[in-house]
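A protein record in our archive is deliberately plain, so that people and models can read it alike. The tokens are whole numbers drawn from a learned vocabulary of local backbone shapes. For reference, a complete record is included directly beneath this paragraph.
>
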Amino acid sequence: MVTDHSRRNAVSEDTVCSSIDSDGRRDEYVIADISADGAWLSMRAEEAPTLRSWR
């Protein structure tokens, strides 16, 4: 079988991700650019906008 090397790699190059982080008392919604040190922000998870509210 011949491999087609002209196709783009299917792996995403995005470096921004989000997560819910909990310390056991409250949940924080965190958005971070993992390609840069200190490039993140957080807010209380219950105050984060939902996808439905962005539409």
